[in-house]
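Hi F.,

I've been meaning to write this up properly since the lab meeting, where we talked about keeping a consistent format for the predictions we share between groups. The idea is simple: the sequence comes first, exactly as it goes in, then the structure tokens exactly as they come out, then a line or two of notes. No screenshots and no reformatting. I'm using this chain as the first example so we have something concrete to point to.
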Amino acid sequence: MSESPPPADDLHSLWYAVGTRDYFAIPAGAELPEGDLTIRAILAAADRSVDREAIASFAIPREEATRRLQVDAARALGHARDALGRLVEIGARIPGQLVQPSDVETVVDSLGKGLSDLARRFREQRKAPGSSDP
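Output, unedited:
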């Protein structure tokens, strides 16, 4: 296969084999023959059935897949932090404070509760009997 490897921060190329702990970084447009191994995209609800031998060259260690996810999560949280910071700055500079401190606290609390709920659901899904997710 002549495809160049996807960038290390490209989560769109990250897949895992359903029912296993095997991860793959598959370049966009990679042509893989059909087979009996079901792989699932990390960022999309997309499954493919591919040939095990054809996908072997795209395998990456679990630690690499985890690192990619952590980098992406940190980036997303950084964007949220920056957006809230701008909201506070704008509110502080505008007469009559369009954005009240309590508004910002509500947004932060809501974001925190949403992230906690997401983490709880993720843990529950991983512990569920018969779960095929990694």
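Notes:
Strands lie at 14-17, 23-25, 37-41, 47-50, 59-60.
Residues 63-127 form one domain.

If this format works for you, I'll send the rest the same way.

G.
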